[in-house]
Design goal:
Blueprint: E1 30-31, E2 38-44, H1 51-60, E3 63-67, H2 70-82, E4 90-94, H3 104-107, E5 110-113, E6 119-125, E7 131-132, E8 142-143, H4 156-168, E9 173-179, E10 186-187, E11 192-196, H5 198-205, H6 210-221, E12 225-229, E13 244-248, E14 251-256, H7 264-273, E15 287-292, E16 295-297, E17 300-301, E18 308-310, E19 313-317, H8 323-334, E20 339-343, H9 355-361, E21 377-380, E22 385-390, E23 395-396, E24 403-410, E25 422-427, E26 434-437, E27 439-440, E28 446-450, E29 458-467, E30 473-476, E31 485-489
Parallel strand pairs: 2-3, 3-4, 6-9, 11-12, 14-15, 19-20, 23-31
Antiparallel strand pairs: 1-5, 2-21, 5-6, 7-8, 10-11, 13-14, 16-17, 18-19, 22-24, 24-28, 25-26, 25-29, 27-28, 29-30, 29-31
């Protein structure tokens, strides 16, 4: 069946100024994007990920390990000690473990920032585990877990786990009365979200119409621009994180199958006729970047977009094929300044892995619809400095007013140190930086500045840096000065 094109763009005007220069949170909640400042990563024990990934996650930031009880905790602590994980780099959280416990992405909570600068945990409904459909957006659902009488085995245990996470983190939980399955919801931090159309079917199964679903997302999460794209596979869970990745406010990374793959045309149709027609919150077409994938088993494709972006590191699942090294190179190319790490998951090589995981995956722990991103979830920083920047176009003429517009929100509530909230710029090839203080507009979170350079033939590099009176510091891009914004003056 030919994919049904569904693109939902109608909910509301963008949460930006009339000129599309600034993001304004206003009186709405805001859902954090994956690349925003995080304290660490939430995983579950017994493990459903490679132990080497666990070690890296602990070394790079902080682990939040969900355990069922003291006995489970003791076993986890024993292995963590054997692997050299510093106890200070891990926090155990007691939570019940259901049959989907390892899919922390799907049942796990999102970070929701309220207008009064408090972070809450958005907890969607997860009582019907992982529906499957064919490629048509109106196709009926099947469910992975059914009993002998063909009745759905519910997952209330996993659905309740976010409440325990909230209690452990001393963070209020925002109850969301709709399915918000994490692997099928990508957000940009500016009031936009992306999902495949199976999510609408999932909510219809729960009794919610499309209009109700969109209205609830707008009212509770501030998601005014919900982009629904076609399903992309024959009979699968259709989770969008196996098809694409939102890299930042204006760039999308999309998997590209080999040209002889039966789903090549489907992927290409979505790119050409759906994603290419979307506009960013800044009113411009998205820059669509492709990452080539390949078969790892029959026609199953390596899910390189199913990677985790956490602070300044990207963790990528590898599938033991030659395309793996090229995928890592591509990630480094499109995300300058980030450390990119790849992880194999041959179950026979693991010192310890959940018996249910072994039974489910048999030999290899990643697959085309369920990989690294699916089994990890960020714990975001409630005191973060949030920065979003409307970048200067890639190519400008010498008479162009090179204005940079930034929205900077200090969620600590302490206020920004305006003397240290700066734009740094230089001509490409130079070592030193020019500094200009950002100018605050009438809106407290809005800043602008002009880069005073107009010589033709030059490439200008720049980044934003902000400091809070709480001591927090943040840059945009987040990896600056390793990663930079730039434009060419023709």
């Amino acid at each position: 069946m030919k994919p049904l094109l569904i693109i939902v763009l109608f909910l509301s005007v963008f949460q930006l100024s009339a000129q599309n220069n600034y993001y304004t949170q206003g009186k709405s909640n805001r859902v954090a994007a994956e690349w925003e400042p995080a304290l660490g990563t939430m995983i579950v024990w017994p493990l459903s990920i490679p132990y080497k990934l666990v070690v890296e996650l602990a070394n790079d930031n902080h682990l939040y390990t969900l355990v069922q009880n003291d006995s489970t905790k003791a076993i986890a602590l024993k292995w963590y000690t054997a692997w050299g994980i510093d106890p200070s780099k891990n926090t155990f959280i007691y939570a019940p473990a259901g049959i989907d416990s390892w899919w922390t992405r799907d049942w796990g909570p999102s970070a929701v920032f309220t207008p009064d600068k408090k972070m809450e945990l958005g907890d969607g409904k997860y009582t019907y585990s992982t529906p499957v459909s064919d490629i048509g957006c109106d196709d009926s659902l099947e469910f992975i877990y059914m009993n002998a009488d063909k009745k759905i085995i519910k997952t209330e245990t996993d659905d309740s786990a976010s409440v325990y996470v909230g209690a452990a983190l001393h963070t209020e939980v925002l109850d969301l009365p709709f399915a918000n399955t994490g692997g099928n919801v990508l957000t940009d931090g500016l009031g936009s979200a992306f999902s495949t159309c199976i999510l609408l079917q999932e909510n219809k199964f729960r009794g919610l119409s499309d209009d109700q679903f969109f209205q609830l997302n707008k009212n509770l999460l501030g998601l005014n621009n919900y982009h629904i794209i076609s399903n992309f596979e024959k009979r699968s869970i259709q989770h969008i994180d196996c098809f694409m990745k939102v890299l930042d406010e204006e760039r999308i990374l999309v998997a590209e199958p080999p040209s002889d793959h039966p789903e090549y045309a489907i992927y290409q149709n979505i790119v050409d006729n759906e994603l290419a027609k979307l506009k960013t919150p800044y009113g411009r077409p998205y820059e669509i970047i492709r990452i080539k994938t390949d078969r790892y088993s029959k026609d199953r494709l390596a899910a390189y977009t199913n990677s985790l972006i956490l602070n300044q590191t990207i963790y990528v699942p590898l599938f033991q094929i030659s395309q793996d090294s090229l995928a890592l190179e591509r990630w480094r190319e499109v995300m300058p300044g980030y450390t990119v790490k790849g992880f194999y998951f041959l179950l026979a090589d693991e010192p310890l892995v959940d018996a249910n995981v072994k039974d489910h995956y048999k030999i290899y722990g990643w697959n085309s619809g369920d990989a690294l991103h699916c089994r990890t979830r960020a714990v975001w920083d409630p005191q973060m400095i949030f920065i979003t920047t409307k970048r200067i176009k890639n190519i400008v003429d010498s008479k162009h007013k090179n204005h940079v517009y930034s929205t900077i929100i200090d969620y600590s509530g302490k206020g920004l140190d305006l003397k240290k909230t700066m734009l740094f710029w230089r001509v490409s090839g130079q070592k030193g930086w020019n500094q200009i203080a950002l100018k605050q507009t009438d809106a407290v979170d809005h800043f602008s500045v002009e880069i005073p350079f107009h010589k033709s033939g030059c490439t200008i590099e720049y980044y934003i840096s902000a400091v809070s009176k709480s001591g927090q510091k943040e840059t945009a891009p987040r990896t600056a000065p390793g990663g930079l914004f730039n434009f060419f003056i023709q």
